[in-house]
Amino acid sequence: MSRTFRFAPSPNGELHLGHAYSALLNGDLAREAGGRLLIRIEDIDVTRCRPEFEAAILDDLAWLGLDWERPVRRQSEHFDAYAEALDRLKAMDLVYPSFLSRAEIRAATASPDWPRDPDGAPLYPGGDRDLPAREADARIASGAPYAWRLKMDAAMAKAGPLAFAEQGRGPAGETGRVTAEPGRWGDVVIARREIPTSYHLSVVVDDALQGITDVVRGEDLFHAASVHRLLQALLDLPEPAYRHHGLIRDAAGRKLSKSEGSTGLRVLRDAGATPAEIRALVGL
Ligand code: GLU
């Protein structure tokens, strides 16, 4: 079976050296494996993603020398596929509509001992998890904001113990067959009212639909793989191999952000950098 890799940028800003590293690494690994390289545009947040950013990203990737299969999958064109996956989770009674606002969550989780997820956000306090269906439906019908959350305990009990194949390493050096720990995320958001999916749901649906065998991405997404593995198990989707790579950092050791001027690919290109120099800068 031919191995299939993907680079999956969100078009909410311009690419920086960190993206260039990830994209070039995917390209190199796909070539070495005699496999396929796909680009996927992760634009579910239609308020923050813009066509100009998408065009600039594809232009930068071509300039870097990457060659990928067409057509490019754009997540905003596939909300129906994510809705179908959400319906399956609803049919299994593994999601519930949660109604607490950000401010209410903050107030309910203010204690310094409140458990936090791997990104440092407080776990959802629940409370509305066992709302009778009629009451939840009435609140949704009244226009109350809500998000669909996973009933994490029930989902983990249904799936049983899980692990994923890590060919790179996590932030603490995790490698090989790694135990998935989705419970560290609590009742994660699976879909929102305004955006009827989430990063977690659309990434597992698309990786399966596109036949991705190898997920190569930054180690900041290592812990997310635990949620992805759980969703794959619940939705009967195949399990890709993961390779999380180290992040390119700025001179002060911080993770690069999309607004970072000096490490932006556009700025470097405009200053005369060549694709070969970019490869050297990221250590490839
Ligand atoms: N779209 C995500 C990002 O821009 C990457 C998702 C992934 O590789 O799983 O960080």
Automatic annotation (TrEMBL):
It comes from the Bacteria. PROSITE patterns: AA_TRNA_LIGASE_I. One of its GO terms (molecular function) is ATP binding. Its EC number is 6.1.1.-. Pfam families: tRNA-synt_1c. GO terms for cellular component: cytosol. Keywords: Aminoacyl-tRNA synthetase, ATP-binding, Ligase, Metal-binding, Nucleotide-binding, Protein biosynthesis, Zinc. GO terms for biological process: glutamyl-tRNA aminoacylation. Residues 6-272 form the Glutamyl/glutaminyl-tRNA synthetase class Ib catalytic domain. The keyword Aminoacyl-tRNA synthetase applies. It is an enzyme of class 6 (ligase). Belongs to the class-I aminoacyl-tRNA synthetase family. This is tRNA glutamyl-Q(34) synthetase GluQRS. It comes from Kaistia nematophila.
